[in-house]
Amino acid sequence: xxxxxxxxxxxxxxxxxxxxxxxxxxxxxxxxxxxxxxxxxxxxxxxxxxxxxxxxxxxxxxxxxxxxxxxxxxxxxxxxxxxxxxxxxxxxxxxxxxxxxxxxxxxxxxxxxxxxxxxxxxxxxxxxxxxxxxxxxxxxxxxxxxxxxxxxxxxxxxxxxxxxxxxxxxxxxxxxxxxxxxxxxxxxxxxxxxxxxxxxxxxxxxxxxxxxxxxxxxxxxxxxxxxxxxxxxxxxxxxxxxxxxxxxxxxxxxxxx
Length: 257
Description:
Elements: H1 13-21, H2 23-27, H3 29-32, H4 40-57, H5 64-81, E1 89-93, E2 100-103, E3 107-111, H6 112-117, H7 121-136, H8 139-163, H9 169-206, H10 212-225, H11 241-255
Helix pairs in contact: 5-7, 7-9, 7-10, 8-9, 9-11, 10-11
């Protein structure tokens, strides 16, 4: 949900009491999210059509320079995980977008824009290691489970309000949805990001790259995004750059680099 939602809700006494009564439902969503979490195999199957669609819609780079570099770095990171690099598909998309992703089922997508920003193989390994870490940790499945659980909690809360005859319960349910998005789903995603940062650093080091290059890359990314109007951290699925850099530096110190 976007931050420009300007809906206002007049919560009178009974409505406030009802909302407080639903706190247990919403706070329990994190604990039951695992019951909704698909396996890595299920996520791989679900991701296949999306991967094919991306390849159809985006322009695939035919540059041997980009493709060889992407394959080289990806192979090194994947070997460090114990994965067979030949079972992964690496595709470079011709675009100035500062974007990269990895999908369940062994798919890595890198955009030429972010490859240009990552001027060294170590900086590119930062990106690949981070994205592969998301797949290894089944973060996409966790996000699905967390979202499903939260939607269930919000739906139950709305049913309780309507059952009690609370006027404007549909609007209150929308407010609950916004609260769940900001209070549960986005922080959960930021937690995934930091977990992927940590594992990504470990993969970099194991593959022979200097983890300190991750800090260099994120400083570059911070400068590249300056003035872009990015949302504040509490409304973003990614940590603020300053916070991410500071935590990366702490992780690298712990690793002894």
